[in-house]
Hints:
By secondary structure, chain A is mostly helical. Helix content of chain A is 88%, strand content 0%. Chain A has helices at residues 2-38, 43-51, 54-68. In chain B, a hairpin with a 3-residue loop joins strand 7 (284-285) and strand 8 (289-297). Chain A binds chain B through residues 44-45, 47-48, 51-52, 54-55, 58-59, 61-62, 65-66, 69, and chain B through 350, 449-450, 453, 547-548, 550-551, 553-555, 557-558, 600-601, 603-604, 607-608.
Amino acid sequence: MEKGLIALAAALAIAIPAIATAWAQGRIGAAGAGALAEKPELSGTIIILVAIPETMVILGFVVAMLIIR
Amino acid sequence: MIQKMSKVRIIGSKLIMNEVVELLHTLGTVHIEEVPRETGLGDYFLREAPVDKDRVALKGRLEKILDKLMTLTILLPPSSTVTDIRYPISSVTSDVFLEALERLETEARNLQKREVELKDELSSLGRYERILRGLAPLITRLEGIKAYETVGLTFDRSKAGVIPLLEEEIKRITEGRYELFVRDIDEETAGIVIAYPRTFAKPVKELITGEAISEIRLPKDYEGLTFFDALTIMLKRKGNIPSDMEKVSAAIKGLSDRWYSEVSRLMEVVRDAIDEISILRFCSETHYAFIITGWIPSPDFQSLVKALRERFEDRVIATESEIKGEEIDLIPVYLKNPRLLKPFEVFLNVLPPPKYGSVDPTPFVAFFFPTFFGLMVGDIGYGILILFFGLYMKRRFRERKVLRDLGYVMTLSSIFCIVFGFFFGEFFGDLGERLGIIHPTVMDRTKALTAFLVMAIGLGVGHTILGLIIAIVNHIHRGRGRDALAKGSSLVFVLSLLLVIGTMTRHFPPELLPTGVIVLVTALFFLIFFEGILGPVEAMKTIGNIISYARIMAIGTASVVLAGVANRMVELTDNLALGIVVASIIHLLNAILAVFSPAIHSIRLHYVEFFSKFYQTGGRRYEPFRRHEAEASSEGKGHET
């Protein structure tokens, strides 16, 4: 039972931020694609902007790993 | 580093101003600017140098020629054939040359137009062929019926429901004297042939036109022919088009081989000539002398003086002016780094230039980017793949500076991947260890997760603190003591907070706790004093920045786990060959991810976490008055220092 709860906690720790990241990246990506059509020179900046919300899922991953250990 | 710049003033006889401008253009070191009014000569004497009418006319003509040349580079496909013909500018502006350009443009346009026409014809014939072939059996059945008219229609098959309605309407108009045949032409289109007495031609046509149904009309060249005759001629024509297209393509290629490189070179010559006239608006003059002011990298100043003296003796003098306090933000920024570090400037080029007098972060990026990248990938096998990829990019994109520089960065970073891969004992994940080739020498990333996390956070502490130290140095360089003290307070606050957390979590001796708390409170007081209530908020953001470095561990672990999954595939399948294929595909996917994800996150750690501590935008790029021809020839020569 305890092991199951730990696994569930770890799964939630990564799943919820993953959904949040996907939502944020989807919106930034759509806006970025629009901006790129107008100004292709912004490609570098937009790649970075798309990568910014990944912090959530990355930290979720770290927390999940720590929970499992 | 940001190159030290000198403010230069060039004064000489008005008679030789154009020659001086030409020499400055060739030297390509002076960033020319408008002469400030406060030159000490007074507005009465100093005025903007007028550009004579002939030059204005010449500029207009050159701009017209440049437009034509640009059009030609669009019309002609790029060619690798290089011609080395040089034109004096006088021959470029002649009427004969302009006429030759117009003839060339007309020829290129006609060829392009012919190519488009042939492509359209081929596509149109294909469409008609499909329709006529589909309807041919229906039309055969109607042959020989006199006093009857036939009409061919096409329908979108998804709208087939309209056909019964159409039939009903035709039936009503023709009082039941009609024949209607339906046949599928392709997956999307259905063809209909309707035969009806000629007497009903008008109402039937009105129905078809009124309902906007697409009637099959033969192309203009085939009007009046029967469907069969048209189909026969179309097939014959369709067979001839490819050879016609080949001829046109060969003619375009021949034209491009002959002219493309010449046109490109001419564009540079014309641009240079336009620049030489445009720059005159920055020159000022008195009754007898001209004045040009600008900025030059300090080490190049003596070369400028020497070149002017050699060419014009004492008729022109160049002097170094004093830079006033308020001018510091106007000094153009010229990043000058050693050859090994220069490609890393590619990461700074996407940002506005830093302010003059601040610290150039390129050397730090050149050290930390490959380190973070190497730590995240940390695999000998992937490192070797990235090395080949980097070398390929360098070679393939020799002429494209940004991609060539990225290739260099990847090549260098791959070496770090290999070194860290050796420390972690990884060769395509745990494959090296399974084969007994290699073992972890420093840590096993799959097991020592906490140690890896602590190392990543530790790197974050070091990197962020370095950012704060650079900020302090920047403020001191720019004479902003209060800002330097504020950043210093922020630095002490972060360090003491880490000390307090460390003692509370028993990573540091507990007796350091009181000292840590006292320093923390003192730093907090100074922080509020210098920066207001936002000071502590900013300092706390730094703690968030440090935690963000945990991504090094997260991405590294994800990469090694995925590599482990690939290796396990071989065990899980009974078929060894299939297992190896599946594992190779996963490894390839992981290698591709290993190029992008660590690179993006590594640079993000620089932009968001590191640069936010000290990088002050607002500088102006150093744009020397130099020839386009010189720039183009230096592009392919590798990294300039």
